[in-house]
Amino acid sequence: MTVTFADWITETANWVFLLIAIPTLAGAVFVVTARNVVRAVLALVVTLAGTAALFMMLGAEFVGWTVVLVYIGAVIILFLMGIMITQAPLTRKTDLSQPMSMRAPAVLLSVILFGVIAWAVIVSFGAEAVPLPDEATSTASIGETLFTNWVIPFEAVSFVLLAALVGGISLARRDPVEEDVG
Amino acid sequence: MTIVQFVLLGAALFSIGLYGVLTRRNAVLVLASVEVMLAAVNVNLVAFDVYLGDASSAGQIMALFIIALAAAEVGIGIAIVLMIFRNRRSADVDELDVMRY
Question: What is the ipTM of this complex?
Answer without folding.
Answer: 0.90
